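To the wet lab folks,

You asked to see what we're planning to order before we commit. Fair enough. Below is the target structure as tokens, and below that is the sequence we designed to fit it. If anything looks off to you, flag it before the synthesis order goes out.
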């Protein structure tokens, strides 16, 4: 059965006391009834029963009274037994025991609790004393010397006047009273203290082991200037007459004059500052040593300085080395002066020669600078005038394309095609010159992204298959879907130059476009069956205006800049270009491109592959904005030939004079980026769409190839085409935009 606690015993005793009180009250009531009946029997005159009946009734009542009295006596004996057992149980408890009622007044305590007061020479609290009075009396009488309370502990801990530790534990009773136990934990505290002392001693031992083996003097000085700790090195150096410095004041350890030299630094560290300084010091045996001293203040939890740490390092050897170096330096300086004096004459002789050479070098630098300026001026000029050079070429192409849409008869059509072919040649030559100039001037910047090679290679193969067929060659193509990290337009330019050279220098046979996968890279290759390149010429083919003429090859109007452009672009992208050739069999041109990983992105403006559509422009309403009247007229003629309704203007004001830009319907706005008076097409189109309820699709046309502009156009969601405009590509783009607008 479970053990009964002291609180349960107290509850049982209270219940028995209550039961005894009820039985005594009932016995008293029965006695009164008995006495009343006896009086009534003895004094009654009317209806008086027979004497025997009265006697019998009295006997019955007496028996009942006796039974009740016996029961009461037994209950009282049981209560007394229980009370004694409770007292014995309380006395048997090894802890101090105190019982308070619901008003927190003392009811019962055991001898252990009273012995605490007896040892202190103070009478124990009597019954009826409140718990607060007990606490005040314990503190005031000196019974409790110290009190500790922690949130994580079960109760408060007291140090008594007899050096015993007790822990107080409080437990409420069911009637609202309070049981307080005082447990002696002196042995536990002593054991814990012993463990702490042992740990501190072990820690101190390790600290001393470490500090004793450090090749420096270590000490701790208290606020009273007494050395409270020092290692063996400190003790060996400052032991005067065999007496250790531990426990002595600094003015007792050091000589008076040396202590006065230390005093300013001691005062400074006692003000809370770290101090490091050097002093020469004489040992007990008279040896001179240079010491580097460091004083570090020690603060208590209140921020007050209670001492400082001392670290002293012997730097005698270092100082001697420094002095030796200083002497060596002085000797070296003297020797240098002597040598300098000896060489002065020779220097004077050489100075004239140096002056003459400096003059020659200055003239060479000036000549080189003039050449670089001239070359830079040339490249900047070509890059800057590219827009003006391409404007009339773009207009001429638009007009010839419009003429090709008409029917003038075979002879006239032949002439128009001849003009178109000549314009193609001019465009290729001019485009090549402009490209090489822009590359030299640093205008073109790569836009490196991850993309799939499939569309790029398919478009290039489709473009050059017809060119090769016209030259009597066969172009084979091996598709590839690898993802690479590069600039798609610049990479396409490299491959186009490879294919152009292959077609140009291959009189007959076939050309192959494909790729090989390597570890982390893709090798894009163009193979041809041309005459090949001599080994000693492989390093020359990438030079500007350098052409290798092979027997049997077709002569064209190229400038020899195609591979020079490839070299500049590949260097800009960091792609390796590899050439291998065998005379009489052919050549292989390769570019190594790193593989990449596709990331979700918006398709670049103008770079998406748009299907070629032959219809869908009929009735399309197009607004053309270009500051060149010739281009406006050429674009209008070309677009009207495709069935479009065209309105042309050289500025926004010109367009507003012709129609209502806010309310009139439009399927497409075709705008040039560079307009007059420092106005650009992006701002003009933005102003038009700002006025409209629904923004119109936009196609920007420009001769500016910079990445900044391309990114800006892409961010706005517009399509972008570069000049000179290819009519076939223009038609496919317009068809795509118009059909998308109408759907």
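Sequence we intend to order:
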């Amino acid at each position: 059965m479970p053990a009964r606690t002291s609180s349960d015993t107290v509850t049982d005793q209270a219940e028995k006391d209550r039961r005894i009180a009820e039985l005594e009250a009932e016995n008293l009531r029965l006695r009164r009834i008995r006495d009343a009946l006896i009086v009534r029997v003895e004094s009654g005159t009317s209806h008086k029963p027979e004497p025997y009946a009265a006697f019998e009734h009295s006997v019955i009542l007496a028996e009942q009274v006796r039974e009740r009295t016996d029961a009461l006596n037994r209950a009282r004996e049981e209560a007394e037994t229980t009370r004694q057992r409770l007292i014995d149980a309380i006395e048997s408890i090894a802890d101090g025991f105190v019982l308070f009622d619901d008003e927190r007044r003392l009811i019962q305590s055991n001898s252990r609790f009273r012995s605490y007061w007896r040892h202190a020479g103070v009478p124990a609290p009597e019954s009826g004393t409140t718990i607060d009075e007990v606490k005040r009396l314990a503190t005031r009488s000196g019974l409790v010397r110290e009190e500790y309370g922690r949130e994580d502990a079960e109760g408060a801990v007291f140090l008594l006047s007899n050096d015993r530790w007790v822990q107080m534990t409080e437990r409420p009773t069911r009637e609202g009273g309070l049981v307080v136990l005082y447990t002696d934990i002196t042995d536990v505290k002593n054991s814990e203290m012993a463990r702490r002392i042992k740990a501190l001693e072990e820690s101190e031992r390790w600290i001393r082991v470490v500090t004793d083996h450090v090749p420096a003097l270590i000490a701790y000085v208290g606020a009273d200037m007494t050395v409270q700790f020092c290692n063996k090195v400190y003790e060996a150096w400052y032991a005067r007459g065999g007496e250790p410095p531990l426990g002595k004041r600094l003015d007792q350890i050091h000589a008076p004059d040396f202590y006065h030299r230390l005093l300013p630094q001691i005062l400074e560290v006692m003000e809370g500052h770290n101090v490091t300084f050097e002093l020469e010091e004489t040992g007990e045996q008279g040896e001179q040593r240079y010491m580097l001293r460091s004083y570090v203040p020690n603060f208590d939890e209140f921020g007050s300085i209670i001492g400082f740490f001392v670290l002293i390092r012997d730097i005698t050897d270092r100082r001697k080395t420094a002095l030796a170096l200083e002497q060596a330096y002085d000797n070296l300086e003297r020797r240098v002066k002597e040598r300098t004096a000896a060489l002065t004459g020779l220097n004077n002789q050489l100075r004239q020669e140096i002056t003459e050479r400096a003059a020659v070098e200055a003239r060479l630098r000036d000549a080189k600078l003039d050449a670089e300026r001239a070359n830079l001026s040339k490249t900047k000029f070509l890059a800057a005038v590219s827009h003006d050079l391409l404007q009339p070429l773009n207009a001429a192409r638009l007009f010839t394309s419009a003429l090709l849409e008409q029917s003038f008869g075979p002879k006239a059509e032949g002439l128009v095609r001849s003009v178109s072919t000549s314009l193609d040649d001019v465009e290729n030559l001019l485009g090549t010159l402009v490209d090489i100039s822009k590359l030299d001037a640093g205008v073109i910047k790569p836009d490196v992204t991850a993309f799939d090679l499939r569309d790029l290679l398919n478009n290039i193969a489709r473009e050059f298959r017809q060119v090769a067929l016209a030259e009597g060659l066969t172009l084979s193509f091996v598709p590839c879907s690898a993802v690479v990290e590069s600039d798609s337009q610049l990479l396409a330019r490299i491959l186009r130059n490879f294919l152009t050279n292959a077609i140009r220098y291959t009189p007959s046979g076939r050309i192959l476009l494909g790729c090989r996968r390597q570890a982390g890279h893709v090798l894009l290759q163009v193979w041809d069956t041309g005459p090949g390149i001599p080994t000693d010429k492989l390093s020359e083919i990438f030079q500007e205006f350098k052409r290798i003429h092979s027997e049997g090859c077709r002569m064209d109007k190229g400038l020899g800049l195609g591979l020079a452009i490839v070299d500049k672009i590949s260097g800009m992208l960091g792609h390796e270009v590899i050439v291998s050739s065998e005379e009489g069999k052919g050549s292989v041109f390769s570019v190594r491109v790193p593989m990449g990983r596709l990331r979700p992105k918006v398709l670049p403006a103008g770079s998406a592959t748009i299907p070629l559509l032959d219809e869908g422009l009929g009735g399309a309403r197009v607004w053309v904005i270009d500051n060149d009247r010739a281009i406006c007229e050429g674009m209008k003629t070309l677009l009207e030939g495709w069935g479009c309704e065209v309105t042309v203007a050289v500025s926004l004001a010109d367009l507003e004079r012709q129609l209502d830009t806010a309310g009139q319907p439009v399927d497409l706005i075709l705008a040039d980026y560079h307009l007059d008076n420092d106005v650009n097409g992006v701002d003009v189109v933005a102003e038009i769409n700002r006025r409209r309820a629904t923004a119109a699709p936009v196609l920007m046309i420009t001769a500016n190839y910079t990445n900044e502009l391309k990114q800006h156009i892409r961010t706005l969601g517009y399509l972008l085409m570069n000049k000179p405009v290819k009519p076939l590509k223009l038609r496919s783009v317009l068809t795509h935009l118009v059909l998308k607008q109408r759907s």
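Structural context that might help your review: The first strand starts at residue 96 and ends at 100. The longest helix spans residues 316-384.

Thanks,
Computational group
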